[in-house]
Amino acid sequence: LVSRSRTTVDTVVSVKGIEIGGGKPIVVAGPCSVETPEQMEKVGAELQAQGILVMRGGAFKPRTSPYDFQGLGEPGLRMLKQIGQKYGMAVVSEIVSPNDVEMAIQYVDMIQVGARNMQNFELLKAVGSTRVPVLLKRGLSATIEELIYAAEYIASRGNEKIVLCERGIRTYEKATRNTLDISAVPILKQETHLPVLVDVTHSTGRKDIMTPVAKAALAVGADGVMVEVHPDPTVALSDAKQQMNFAEFESFMAELRQSHMIP
Ligand code: PEP
Ligand code: MN
């Protein structure tokens, strides 16, 4: 169903009226985790000022350590939705359990399936049974073919509103958090008809190379990029090192606009 052999027409996924894949690249931005109303209020105002249309924010965090902040859960989704409504943005958030899908769609405009759950087949079937757009991230050690099959799980349940996301894979290289597989973008565009985003934050884990990497992603045909932004990354409850502060985010956006990579 998701294969390019089915259609030459690129799929456009509409998230609350915002088109992903229509030829106008988008920037999905927001904090790693939803933390407090004050934090989200600041983020909402900043993102709106920067013209962001889709806001991200995690409420169910798949953390490596069980002792790390796990996210606010449903109250976090509620907060995300409130700020999204206030500032006129669609919202996307990760769900990790099939049991939470029905609850989550009351709050989010797009469900994120994270890298660690790309082959959580029960979750894929659950989101496939909804008609809510899905942002499907590539697994940490997943091949492109496995990512496409994961998308097929969702589509086979009747939900074809799928956006793929390259977010870096595990290699021996330690200079970046993961290795961004830039070739995955044109390959996914060639092998499927789905839109493709690149998460430049989780792939690189480095703020100092975010802008050139985002340009590269857009240059090879990505339909947009995802970045993490926090009012004060130094006190963030997750991914403190890699989130951009507002000044960094503003120069990131200005550079992409000046080079005409985003409208
Ligand atoms: C995220 O986007 O919040 C996240 C945890 O990313 P990934 O699943 O790609 O690691
Ligand atoms: Mn993160």
TrEMBL record:
Work out whether the entry's keyword set contains Transferase: yes
Which GO molecular function annotations are given, in alphabetical order?
A: aldehyde-lyase activity; chorismate mutase activity; transferase activity
Signal peptide feature range: none
Query: What does the record list as GO biological process?
Result: aromatic amino acid family biosynthetic process; chorismate metabolic process
What keywords would UniProt list here?
Transferase
Domain of life of the organism in this record?
A: Bacteria
Q: What is this protein called?
A: Protein AroA(G)
